[in-house]
């Protein structure tokens, strides 16, 4: 089977790596991909939101299945577009993608179906803002309704800050967002919980701990994620049961009841406090960097899971995990998530991370005309290691990054510190 993978991050590199192991896969096409995916796939450099152009490639290359990595094309309706053309595509429909694409929709589902989540108010104008703010104590969490490239959430320590942030969003800070959600601040520890669902059946497909802050000890600005490990230690059997019963199952049923059954990967961002899980957000895809650790631990054929989702046969699948821990450490360009330089050569990259227990996944990398590999964005590499000991996994992942000859590299050395270094 020929497969097209949409996206260009380390998440997509790890999906390609995993699909490459499937006996049923013939050719992989990554759209647009990165220097890492070009070693195992054919990269095709087109815009992931230009569905007509992608369709031309699908026809020309006889692609039989499309796997979508990032949220934006899903929210824009890529699944509906290709389903209409009778091409198999793995990812939720435009209506179902509102679970990530509209915080107001997602919070509405939580309210209507009694899914535990932060208390909230929806705000459409400044009058409503003043009234709503009266109902909350600081800190107050202010969120843009629509996608905002990971920059749509601010935790405000004064009501004035919250008001100013609301005003900025309502006056177009994030073009697409005309609404604001404000929420109570939840205490606890965050965990990422993944399921795959065909709209009826679902199976858990792993847990992970992301590390979103740029600095060690979780300090500094929020990023896309600087490292992750799997499985999460926060999710005991008891907590797992609660997550399924109070969050995942009601959501799958709610989406069916709303006439937009959810098919694909559903990623719940959870806050866990004294063994009580609450939903912070839904994402409609695998997380990055969480995907990298899940793909290393998953023993199943990923294509078989995807096909069973599309054929509504997920109940026949049994997930089989590698019992080792997996950690990934993200190397970013120095200065990320603010200003940073691009197009710095990464000299000896091809020497590292090429076994079933060690992978150096690429994110923003490109191959120059000279055949050399250059950094091309914020998050650049994802050093990923499986090991019986989480501490050893970190040591090995760091060793790979330490050996890389790239003057502009920055990474945290403390991923997993709450467990390893306590
Ligand atoms: P979101 O895009 O909704 O996941 O928010 C991004 C990050 O903001 C989350 O991963 C949390 O760290 C933080 N966050 C969002 N909502 C809340 C909340 N209600 N309470 C505490 N932290 C939050
Ligand atoms: N790691 C967070 C995300 O993918 O949204």
What would you note in describing this structure?
By secondary structure, the protein is of the alpha+beta class. It has helices at 10-20, 51-60, 71-75, 78-84, 98-101, 103-112, 126-134, 159-170, 237-257, 290-297, 302-310, 390-403, 417-420; strands spanning 3-7, 28-32, 42-43, 65-68, 88-90, 120-123, 140-144, 153-156, 180-184, 189-197, 202-210, 213-215, 219-222, 227-230, 264-273, 276-283, 325-333, 358-362, 365-367, 373-375, 379-387, 409-410. Strands 10, 11, 14, 15, 16, 17, 18, 21 and 22 form a nine-stranded antiparallel β-sheet that branches. A five-stranded parallel β-sheet has the order 3-2-1-4-5, sandwiched between helices. The longest helix is centred in the middle third of the chain and has 21 residues, at 237-257. It binds adenosine monophosphate (AMP) and glycine (GLY). The site of glycine has 6 residues, from loops. Glycine (GLY) binds next to loops.
